[in-house]
What does this fold into?
Amino acid sequence: MVSTSERPRLIMEDGRRYNGRAYDELRPIRMQVGVLNNANGSALVEYGRTKVLAAVYGPREPQLKHVSIPYRAVLRCRYHMAPFSTHDRKSPAPSRREVELSKVIRESLEPVVVSEMFPRTSIDIFIEVLNADGGTRTASVTAASLALADAGIPMKDLVAGVAVGKVDGVIVLDIDEVEDMYGEADMPVAAAPSLNLITLLQLNGVLTPDEFKKSLDLALSGIRRIHEGMKETLRRRYLEVKVEE
Ligand code: ADP
It folds into this structure.
């Protein structure tokens, strides 16, 4: 966490954000799939300094028989922040926040996974936050979605996530940790643009209904851009495979 006790100025005189970005500008986003050998699918996603690794195993026989469902696969998700991912060393034991985020991320992906194709199996997603600078849950949704695609799990769409916020009265896209911490509101959103579904929406802080609508529109426009990048990442990966044949 940032150690400043005074609230920093977040919007500068020229209208730019403290980090130099325009209100509707994403951080530099990098995505890579197939980064781990032993997982069925994997992805490394960076939103600026936020860096998240996702690994997918399955569909496989559930390790616990009682979690099996006769007509579909069970999706399981574990979100974890590495002890070295934050400024102060974070306890490696799962916190309440991590348990809740694991559930929220899983629920954001469930609507797109064609789980009926794999009855009595489990699809396990492991997410490791390697570096945290705001927006880790939304970067995790993007990474998990790419890792599922990399594992060859049939999906109706790719889900992408981004957080928007209100800082010094301005609605801004893809907030970092400082904007999250000192802003008036933060709102993580995930969506499946081709299906036209919002699969995650949370709001901390206070917005008027008009600001809420503006925030949602800004988030969805960012999500569409990230979604394009995800498709391009997968295309590049499979083009490479084809060229090597
Ligand atoms: P998100 O990462 O999805 O934005 P939060 O709003 O809970 O989730 O956290 C905002 C940011 O605060 C995180 O991205 C991270 O940079 C920081 N943070 C969260 N939890 C911790 C923690 N336990 N220790 C240190 N920093 C944390």
Summary: The first strand starts at residue 29 and ends at 33. DSSP finds four helices and ten strands in the chain. The beta strands are 29-33, 41-47, 50-60, 74-81, 122-131, 160-167, 170-173, 185-192, 197-201, 204-205.
